[in-house]
Amino acid sequence: MPKVLMDGNSAIGEAAIRAGCQCYFGYPITPQNELIEYMATHLSRRKGCVFVQAESELAAINMVYGASVVGARAMTSSSSPGISLKQEGISYLAACELPAVIVNMSRGGPGLGSIAAAQSDYFQATRGGGHGDYRTIVLAPSSVQELADLTIRAFDLADKYKIPVIILGDGVLGQMMEPVEFKQEAPAVLPVREGSLRGAKGRPSKIIKTFTSNPAELEEINWSLFRRYGLIKKQETTFETFMIDDAKLVVVAFGIAARIAKGAIRNVRAEGLKVGLLRPITLWPFPDEAVKEVVKNVNHFLVFEMNMGQMLEDVQLSLEGKGEVSFYGRPGGVIPTPSEVSRVISRLYYQKGLK
Amino acid sequence: MKKMEIRIAGFGGQGVVLLGNIMGKAASIYNKRFAALTQSYGPESRGGSCRAELIISESPIEYPYIIDPGIQVILSQEAYIEFGGKASKDTLLIVDSGLVKVDNSPAAQLLSIPASRMAQEMGRPVVANIIMLGFLAAHSNIISREALERSIKDFIPAGTESFNMKAFEMGYHYSLLGDRPA
Lengths: 355, 182
Fold this sequence. Notes:
- The complex is a heterodimer of chains A (355) and B (182).
- Chain A contains 13 helices and 14 strands.
- In chain A, helix 1 (8-18) runs parallel beside helix 7.
- Chain A has 2 domains: 4-236, Rossmann fold; 240-351, Rossmann fold.
- Chain A has 355 residues and is α/β, with parallel strands linked by helices.
- Chain A has helices at residues 8-18, 33-42, 57-69, 80-85, 87-95, 122-126, 144-161, 171-175, 215-236, 255-270, 288-294, 311-319, 338-351, and strands at 4-7, 23-26, 50-53, 74-78, 100-106, 137-139, 164-170, 177-180, 239-242, 249-252, 275-280, 282-284, 300-305, 324-329.
- Chain B has 182 residues and is of the alpha/beta class.
- Chain B has a single domain (3-176), classed as Pyruvate-ferredoxin oxidoreductase, PFOR, domain III (Pyruvate-ferredoxin Oxidoreductase, domain 3).
- Chain B is 37% helix and 22% strand.
- Chain B has 6 helices and 6 strands; from the N terminus they run E-H-E-E-E-H-E-E-H-H-H-H.
- The two termini of chain B are 27 Å apart.
- The model of chain B has no long low-confidence stretch (mean pLDDT 89).
């Protein structure tokens, strides 16, 4: 298919359809309304597919739960306050080992916050988010093309590991328009997951539930979840590096912040400052091995986020006390410019005596 | 041209975002450049302030917002007050002279066209934005005329091609009549 000019939210919708998404359930909230709108127009017209504008975020996530139980590829989306409301359902999905794709086009918080783009949901996304001991895979795209590509990957990962997958975008990525290419066609036959509940004819009935009164049984469920999480960490961790080979200072940033950082790095490179970028694409599992690899050659890190310092803690944990970590953040939906970040980088560079 | 930032600002209902879409598609899909388009509008669907901001570049675009636009298309007095006065010396400032009263703008180039009045005289007030686009196309070589015409046809409803193309043509040729001071 040739390239098209599309906003990020619609690109997710189109990519989801091409990934064989059969069910979408959502409740409107800015800045992800273009996604709901796209699904209302396009998914609802496809044979065998279901679009429901639910009465609330809680209803939407529980509809996803139902669709996933019967083996359909299902998705919901929202923005920060709405994602908070969905956490109970996400915890239940994780407990029942059910695949699902949940899109968070995050905005400024806390509370109802603002409708401007922010990255302050990092903790919520990467630490499970709801109650109980669980994780979700978290993908952090940084362009409209990557939103499309990672949406397809999200559905594949969810099915492969029977786990909810979060796509953590932001208001800028969701609403900006860029050229995008869709590399696969929608499947002719909608995929149905093996082992899903489709009637018990010829076999004893199965029950999918999250409650057990036997703590030992629940402990084993937790162990089995975490064995799988270990496997995901080993196999699915992804990241990007940029101009890192000769770098004396490495910026760590994800999503839209990483794009701003790239612009800043180009600026300071023009002045002869040796600065590179490490961009985690999976936020969970976090690419801690990549950070450990970088610190072998580089002593100075600058974590740049559009929040008060959340991924910062993962970088510090990965470094295990090695290296020196600085932080620059703008919370609340303020979007810094590349020249602002360049100034921060060069100040740090000279302060640390790297030039 | 390595990189060009364009702002179109007016109020909801003028086709500001549509103009952004047409130009964005023409530049990225037909002229095969990199492009990023962002929009901003208030909660109202009509009458609120509204703008579309487009970056066209020869190389991948990292920061998706415009910082120093080379071209500003201003379609309301409110937008002129907000952006026109702050335009840098190199900015090409294009205003709808029927809607905007200009003061001493520092912009190096100020061009005006009564696009909304021309559209009204045509009996099709909705094509003011397309007249403006034709005028812009004649005064800049960022996006090819062919690409713009193809892109217009992608976005307009079927059956409206003839008067939309006529509107584009009017805007394009208006500039050839000589640039008049605002």
